[in-house]
Amino acid sequence: MGESVTLTWTDWQAVAVPLALAIGAVAVLLVDAFWRSATAQLRHTVVTLLTGAVILFGLVFVWAQRDDFKPAFCRPAVEGPAECSLVFEPMTAGLWAVLLIGGLGVVGLSAYRLLASDIPVGEYHFLLLSALSGATVLAGARDLATVVIGLEVVSLPSFAMVALRRDRRGSEGALKAFLVSVLSTAVMLFGISYLYGVTGSLYLTTIANRLAGLDPDLERVAFAAGLFVIVGFAFKIAAVPFHAWLPDTYVGAPVEVTAFLAVVSKSAGVAGLLVLVTTGIAPNGSDLRTVVAVLAAVTMTVGNLAALRQVEAVRLLAWSSIGQVGFLLAPLAVGDAQAVVGYLAAYVVVTLGAFGSVAVVQRHRPGGLLTDYRGMVRSEPGLAVALIFFLVVLAGLPPGLAGLFTKFAAFQAVIDAHLGWLAIVMAINVMIGLAVYLRWVAELFRLPADDPFSVDIESPAVAMISLCAATAAVLSVLPSTMFALAT
Amino acid sequence: MIATAWRVLGVGFSLLVVLTAGLLAGAEPGRSSFLNSSIDGLTLGFAVRTDDLTVLLLAVVGVVATCVQVYSLGYLHERPASYHALVALFTAAMVTVVVADSLFLLLIGWEVMGACSYLLIGHYWERRDARSGAVKAFLMTRLGDVGFLFGIFVLGVGAGTFRISELDPAELSSGVLTTGTLLLLVGVVGKSAQVPLQTWLPDAMPGPSPVSALIHAATMVAAGVFLIARLYDLFAASATTLTVLAIVASVTMLFAALCAMAAVEVKRVLAWSTVSQLAIMFAGLSLGTSDGRHAALFHLVTHAAFKGLLFLCAGVLLHQIGSAAFVVLRRYTRRGRLRKALPVTFATMTVGLAALAGVPGFAGFFSKDTVVEAAWHHAQDGSGLGWVVLVSVCLTAALTAFYCLRLWLWVFFRTPALAGGIGAFEDDDPMADLDEPDTSKLRDAPWVMLSPLVLLAIASVVLGYADGVHLNWVVGLVTTVLVLLGALPAYSLWSRGADPRPVVLEREFGVDPLYHRLFAVPARWLARLTVAGDRDVIGAYVRATGRTGTLVSQGFRRMQTGNVQTYLTAAVVGVVAIAVLAGVIGS
Amino acid sequence: MPLILPLLLAVLLFCIGVYGVLARRNAITLLMSFELMLNAVNLNLVAFDAWRLDGLATGQTLAVFVITLAAAEIGLGLAIVLLLFRGHGHVDADAARDLVEQDATEQRKGAAT
Amino acid sequence: MNAILLGILALPLLAALALWALPAAIGDRLAALYGSVVSGLVLAGSLILWPWNDGWFAYTPDERALRAATDVPWIPALGVRFHVAVDSISMPLIVLTALLVFLCCLYSLRITPRIGRTRSLIALLLVIEAGVIGTFSAMDLVLFFLCFEIVLIPMWLVIDIWGDEHDPAGRKRAATTFVLMTVLGSALMLLGFLLVYRQAGTFDIVRLTNAPVLGGHGIPLAAAILIAVGLAVKVPLWPLHIWLPDAHAKAPTVGSVLLAGVLLKLGTYGMIRILLPVLPDATVTIAPYLAGFSTVAIIAGSLACLAQTDVKRLIAYSSVGHMGFIGLGISTLSPAGLRGALFANIAHGIITGLLFFLAGAIKDRHDTSDLRAIGRALYARLPRIGALLTFACLASLGLPGLAGFWGEMLVLLGAYDPSDLLPRTTYLVLMVIAGLGTVLTAAYFLRLVRNLCQGDPAEHPATAFAVDLSRIELITWAPLVALTVLLGVWPGLLLHQWGNL
Questions:
Q1: Considering its fold, how many domains does chain A have in total?
Q2: Which InterPro entries is this protein grouped with (chain B) (predicted)?
Q3: Where on the phi/psi map is residue B48: left (φ > 0), alpha (ψ -120 to 50), or beta?
Q4: D68 and which of A224, A422, D5, D118 could share a cystine (Cβ 3.0–4.6 Å)?
Q5: Is any Cβ of chain A less than 8 angstroms from the Cβ of B576?
Q6: Nearest by CB to B572, which of C18, C97, C101?
Q7: Domain ranges in chain C?
Q8: Which residue ranges of chain B lie beneath pLDDT 50?
């Protein structure tokens, strides 16, 4: 019988951010629910500011503690180092920063006049903050129970957000995401149960230690269990072949929510998988890593190929995000946290920007076809240049150096791990990915357009897109900032 | 205005060359090098030298070029600016070859000449035969030049220098020497139109006649002879090369003379005669003796005079009548008009033909005899090569006399037997259905054209005595007899009005079609094959990649059915698949 | 009781759950199938806990978590199903196909109009 | 000094950004003038920077030859530094780039593609210039890769937007093929760089040159192959050349000029700068194959030219052959061959630039580049352009006395006497084949002159708008003609640069 777990000041510090987000979530809900007298604009603005403030607090907190190592909810282990449920360390800081920046971006995209008017503001922000809270927990989790809880706290609000508009499309999208996710949770839990069975612990470090000295008979069981856990996350991040729900859900949800799914939800999944792979179930040299590498190769290839002929902007982004996840999985498969976090950072920023731009266009042209963007470089030069920049970053070509260097880091990680075949697949996918994005860029440049897109863009959108572009530009010039997120 | 400037420049430049030759005559040999850069111990750069050979060639080039430039003032009316500029450039290139002491400088002149000849032969680019002749000239000489370049590599790398004056046969291994000189010989064969690269020269005849004169007399083809004379130490040190050269020369001189016997156009006869005469020079050089070299150079000089003269004469015919085909000329001759209307041309051409045929007293007689004599001496020294050369030169002398006389008689004289008929050339008369030509306006060319003729005609006689007359009477007698032996059949055939031309000779041994079939046709096929390969093999892969991408993409779109249970099924199947795959990896 | 029996039962339950998810069309049935799967997990956890004599009772604790989680999921699931029913008038999971990509030609037509 | 280098790197980029910031309404002429001034400044800067006689730093002690170096850490996490410097390997290419861009801008003062949008075109040209100069001065593998890629999207846009206006689908396809093949190649090249990094622990070219990755098999060989393939796409070496004819044929005149004159050199420069010094042993292993493919490129390119019916395609294919010579020169690993390759780089840039200018002029005047549609007897209709075309063709076929000769001659000399580590007999065979390739080269250029310039003018009457050489054309082409002659008669001008090679 171990000693009882007592909460210390360090524990509180480590969970401060998730806690603050959760409290913020409740506060937002309360404000929206009980302050009915204010005008919609005022209420919306206050809610936005409140949400933003909470997330900003989290960011500042992360920034202040970025170099610290703060384990929380620890107890001395039977063997080996202390077992902790949640750890704040530099990698966590990097992941939290990415998640929070993503959340902040989504809040910005959901500012007044941007968010569809039929979405209840309070619930929306409540769900957003809840999911963020879960995401941060997931990124810091060091035991499987916390992982499961964190994952669910991210997922369930996301589905609610997809369906928040309460229309046919939203409900269908939510249903698809929900069903696939629940199946994945069940599979993952099934795997966890076996993992627990063979190792007798849920703490990742302990599992890692015990896996090393496992009875060979049980090794197969442990491997299968680990596989199930990874497959659970593969659903979450929509790795092929567990991706099919993603395009439909992305198209069905409001664009802001899609941005949320693509940025926060997906990052959370990657963060969780990263934690699992690096600290727990897939130690260096494990066959599970090979499985992840295979998943990476298949995911990026299928994602990019499917994106090749899409004619709708959101669907193209959906498929391309699958491709991007493939690229993320590649350094993940070799346990290179730095490359993963860096990639995630660039991905989050430009995906936000891209969805922001798409949201602007979609609000005025609901069709959402790529042809709607024709000639925009002349009619809406600012927006077009920003969008082109985002796309080029996603493709990983100059001037989008942020994307180039994150891909570079991914290549480097893979090469250092002697996965030559994966590197070749990645190289081919760089080409396919470029083909995907160039089609869109070409539309933007095509002149003359019959009916060019030209509107008065809402100022919050301008601010958000400019911010994303500026951040991406800074990351391009100083790519080391991205990689400094997790050192 | 511009044309006038270029005319002045052209004539002036040629005169300058003559003047330079005059100034350099008797001066101390000198050398200097410039613009050098060194690569890996090899110096790559330019160098010039002046010595007797240089001066001799400069004089020849200068005089012929001056004659051609002056003659062209009257001859050429279309696009004179580019013409005169190119002739000047042509001359300059030859001068470069002559003064070069660096193999690369020599190569520059060598190939610029090729380019100039291409451009000048194609001067009448409206004409199909001029176009193809020009291309052919350039390509065949270029083919030889590749060998020439490789020869430079072999010798230069072997000797560690590209300076001609520093190439010492004693320091070169015999393998390098033989390979290098043989490769150089390839270039020479191409440039001087020897067998097997002989076909371009006759086809180059559509060019303006003065250009032909320049090419055949002083530049281009003479460069080959000059080159061997310049590198004579090297060539003489390699017995293999000399043997090859002798065989090439012997075959060429007979081949070309035979072709000339059946040609039915003045310029074509002359072109073949050039090939044949050059072969005589090469034969002299192939002896490997200083006598032989001297004989060859002597023949080069006299040949420059009479061949230049002959081509300029042919130019007059072309200029005044519009054609140099036998059949056209016969239309005038059968009325006896040609000789009377063009007295100066007739006279000078007679001199030229006599010199070419080796009629005693004319320059060609002496120079050819020197070659024969050198060969004779060499043969007496016990050289088989000498005998080969001797026999072939003697035979060629007879054949030369035949075609010269044939040309002279058929062009200028009525045939009593034909009683005013055109004769044996009627078959290929392009104007057979035309009316009789109006001969009344036919008159000799203006004096600006005739004066070079006269000058060269004088040279064609005088030059024979320039070297001092040391005639070997036996040799002289033998060659004279041979000339007579050659001339008699020509006369008797003419007087009977017959001109039997064996088909094989008329087709020039079928070499040209053979080359066409051997090289041009396969090249065209290969070209089509390459294009098709790019399009249907390499390009097909690229296109197929793109199409596969599109198809796969469409496939993925199809798989996106919208049915969530399909997705779930796919996912479960995916789990199983990954489990199986992992099992495979794990085991 | 040997460990193998509850494990076999759990596998059986899980497989029935998977079958239900794949074979049934009614969304409610699907939710029930998920319940089955999660309960299989619970069974596993408790069985392993008992087998291992885990002093921390980790397995049981996680089982409680899973029960809570399942409740939350079903709650949200039912809400979504209700929404689906409101929008579509039925609760067939495989009949909700609005979001499937239209055929390219149709889309072009749509863009033209 | 390093300020100048940084200046000529930054100036075009900033100027391009500034140009885009200007309103779209500014006149085409003004934009072109702006571009001319900027690129003129870059040209001036590059001329000031030209180091005389210092040679390649790989062959000089103490890195004396490296000039204008700037070396600051950039991304420490990845081991990437911002390290730029020039030596006499890169400097002539930089000057060539600056010159060609300058001439293109100057040309655009009067003659622009019919599609218009000159402002953007000029800006893209400036971006390309910055990228190319960056590639030529990068001393860090990652920076090299980066600059290598900078060029892609602008060039893609240039072809996609301003390309052949009669064939929108074709130009789109050409642009996409170009960009995708190059991106795949450069991604593979990046893999090679990363392998080098894994072996040597640095991306710095200077350090790698001083302490190369030795060993001719295993990882160094894999790295060398990957790098060579990546660069070969750009060169382009047969059979990776398939993007080239379309891209050149469909691109606008200035695009073709830059594509052929400058962009192709990135590949060969990379081979000389990276492959040889960094992976010396592995390069020896792959050199014979490289030489073989180069020779095939010479022959295949020339043969393909013989069957072309489009003047721009023909010139494009001729680049395949010429670049094959350069590849052969590099693969001899001998001083003569390398210098030949370097010289031919410059000469090809000048001559093919001129040829594409001429082809563009002919195309503009006839609204097609199809030889059959243009008709013959250009000498009669456009005598000056015809004469210039003939001149350029003669230069391009390697006529001694013009710039095209020396490079190819030195390449053949290098093949005659290759590095001692290489199989000489193989190279002798390749030399002979390449020599025959020069004859084929002559054949297709003469065929071009014959089919285009010569012919009976009566059959091909002049079109009404056919204006012979305009003043702006004269001004832009004159430097190229002059350089062709100057380098032809004085090759030492450049050869001196590589003194200690």
A1: 1
A2: NADHpl_OxRdtase_5_subgr, ND/Mrp_TM, NU5C-like, Proton_antipo_N
A3: beta
A4: D5
A5: no
A6: C18
A7: 4-112
A8: none
Give the contacts of B352 (CB within 8 A, at least 6 positions apart). Answer: B306, B307, B309, B310, B313, B456, B457, B460
Cβ distance D198 to A416 less than 8 Å, yes or no, reads: yes
> Closest chain B residue to A285 measured between Cα atoms?
B586
CA distance A134 to chain C (A): 14
pLDDT along chain A (487 residues), means of 10: 63 88 93 85 90 94 86 77 85 92 92 82 92 94 91 92 87 89 91 90 87 81 87 87 88 90 93 89 79 91 90 91 93 90 92 92 85 87 92 90 91 90 93 91 82 82 92 90 77
Query: What would the pLDDT profile of D398-427 be if each residue is shown by its tens digit?
Result: 898 899 999 999 999 999 989 889 999 999
Indicate the pLDDT class of residue C111, thresholds 50, 70 and 90: very low
- By C-alpha distance, which of B280, B282, B272, B340 is closest to B310? B272
**Greatest pairwise CA separation for chain D in angstroms:** 71
Q: Tell me the C-alpha to C-alpha distance, in Å, between residue D410 and each of A340, D483, D490.
A: 50, 19, 14
Tell me the Cα Rg of chain A: 22
Tell me, what's the ipTM? 0.89
Q: Which helix (H) or strand (E) holds A456?
A: none
A398 and D191: CB-CB below 8 Å? Answer: no
Residue at A196 is within a domain: no
d(C-alpha A324, C-alpha A429), whole Å:
10
Written as one letter, the residue type at A256 is: E
Mean pLDDT for all residues in chain B: 86
For chain C positions 59-98, those within 8 Å of chain B (CB to CB) are 93-94, 96-98
Among B94, B236, B233, B99, CA closest to B166: B233
**Alpha carbons B185 and B152: distance in angstroms, whole number:** 11
Q: Which two tokens stand for residue B483?
A: 């000339």
Is residue A122 included in any domain, yes or no? no
Q: What is the CA radius of gyration of chain C?
A: 20
Domain assignment of residue A100, yes or no: no
Run of H or E including D276 = helix D276-278
Give chain B positions within 8 Å (CB) of D399: 111-112, 115
Are B563 and C98 in contact (CB < 8 Å)? no
Q: How far is A217 from chain B (nearest CA, A)?
A: 14
Inter-chain CB proximity D149 and A434 less than 8 Å: no
CA distances from A294 to A107, A243, D276 (A): 35, 15, 35
Enter the tokens of residue A275.
Answer: 């934690």
- Cβ contact A319:A306 at 8 Å: yes
HSE, side-chain direction, 13 A CA sphere, residue C27: 31
User: Rounded to two decimals, what is the model's pTM?
Assistant: 0.92
Whether the predicted pLDDT of C113 surpasses 50: no
Rounded to whole angstroms, the Cα distance separating A395 from C28 reads: 42
Architecture of domain C4-112: Orthogonal Bundle (1.10)
CB B299 within 8 Å of CB B281: yes
Per domain, the residue ranges of chain D are 2-496
- The confidence score (pLDDT) of residue D51 equals 66
Those residues with Cβ within 8 angstroms of residue A289's Cβ, 6 or more apart along the chain or in another chain: A277, A282, A333, A334, A335
**Could you identify the residue written with the tokens 């043989």?**
B182
CB contacts, 8 Å: A432 with chain B: 549
User: pLDDT tens for residues B197-243?
Assistant: 888 888 888 888 888 888 888 888 888 999 999 999 888 888 899 99
Asked whether residue A90 is domain-assigned, the answer is: no
Contact yes or no for A424 and D191 at CB 8 A: yes
Query: How many cross-chain Cβ pairs, A to C, lie less than 8 Å apart?
Result: 143
Q: How many C-beta atoms surround the C-beta of residue A123 within 10 A?
A: 17
pLDDT at residue A1 in the model:
36
- Spans of chain D below 50 pLDDT: none
